[in-house]
Amino acid sequence: MNVSIWVWVAFNLFVLAMVAIDLGVFHRKAHEVKLREAGIWVGVWVTLALLMGLAIFLTRGQKFALEFITGYIVEQSLSVDNLFVFITIFGYFGVPAKYQHRVLLWGIIGALLMRGSFVAVGAYLIHSFSWVLYFFGGLLVVTGIRMLYKHDEEFDGETNKIVRLARRFIPISPVYDGQKFFVRAKSGKLMATPLFLTLLLVEFSDILFAVDSIPAVFGITKDPFIVYTATIMAVMGLRSMYFLLAGILPRFHKLQYGLSGILIFVGLKMIVAELGYHIHILASLGVIALALAGTIVWSLATEPPPKPDPVVAGDDPETLS
């Protein structure tokens, strides 16, 4: 759909305003985000996404509104897999619970910039090279199949390439200093804290995640504005969802099969659409909802494999463990 530049500007100003309110009002002082607060913010972001869908419906019609809602659900559901990564990273570095929100917020600010770039590049490639849609579709199918056989791996900061590269070029302090990302040593040398190292890993994990999620939303709609707004609205609610679900995420141990099915379905949908066989958006929405609901019920009906649950730290550590 043709969208005025002022609509793009207004949406981005809205996002920036919400980030400023979050940083300057609700989380000006570091504190542990409790379930009630997280639940309220999840409700706020879901409501804003629905209002966005309603606005698109009133101004552009049912088709684009359904594409937005479907793209939002796809992005939001795939982002749950990224939450497992956040839990593992926070647990390894023993990030105090009251500072986790700061890491996620700045991580999401970085994600907003990266997602915008990814959407712009994706839209350009699709417009310029028709074969790119086959590539994106194949990428999603392959990723979905790989997810079927994915095994949880313990995060090891000593062997992680990003951690080792960061420590090679950036002096890292062994201790936290409140919610600061950088501190000055007694010698006057500027050093990054473990909190910055955690942020770096969160940002890198989001880049890897976006490689799958952005093509998946393009598999729902080729409209850059719908892809961008659906993605951004989902990402903005990600940190609140983390605090709401962190304690129970390990219970959804079958969710990877639903996410795998979604990626394979969207990839095939993208490929067959280029061959002239279009799947109605309502049918797509139904398949995606069924995959999510089915694997959630399956998870709750079966016992998770015996392994220790990830621990989200709550006290300030003196040094890294």
Tell me what the structure shows.
- The model is unreliable at 308-321 (pLDDT under 50).
- Strand 1 (182-184) and strand 2 (190-192) form a beta hairpin.
- Helix 2 packs antiparallel against helix 8, helix 3 (62-93) crosses helix 10 and helix 7 (194-218) crosses helix 10 (255-274).
- Strands 1-2 form a two-stranded antiparallel ribbon.
- 70% of the residues lie in helices and 2% in strands.
- The protein has one domain (15-152, 211-301).
- The N and C termini lie far apart (52 Å).
- The protein has helices at 5-26, 35-60, 62-93, 97-128, 132-148, 161-169, 194-218, 224-236, 238-245, 255-274, 281-301; strands spanning 182-184, 190-192.
- The chain has eleven helices and two strands.
- The protein has 321 residues and is mostly helical.
What is this structure's SSE topology?
Blueprint lengths: L4 H22 L8 H26 L1 H32 L3 H32 L3 H17 L12 H9 L12 E3 L5 E3 L1 H25 L5 H13 L1 H8 L9 H20 L6 H21 L20
Antiparallel strand pairs: 1-2
Features:
321 residues, globular, disordered C terminus, two-stranded antiparallel ribbon, 11 helices
Shape: globular
Name the average pLDDT.
Answer: 83
The total count of strands amounts to 2
Number of domain units: 1
Q: H/E element string? A: HHHHHHEEHHHHH
Q: Hey, roughly how much beta strand do the residues contain?
A: under 5%
| Largest sheet entry | 2 strands, antiparallel
Please sum up the structure shown.
The protein is mainly α. Helix content is 70%, strand content 2%.
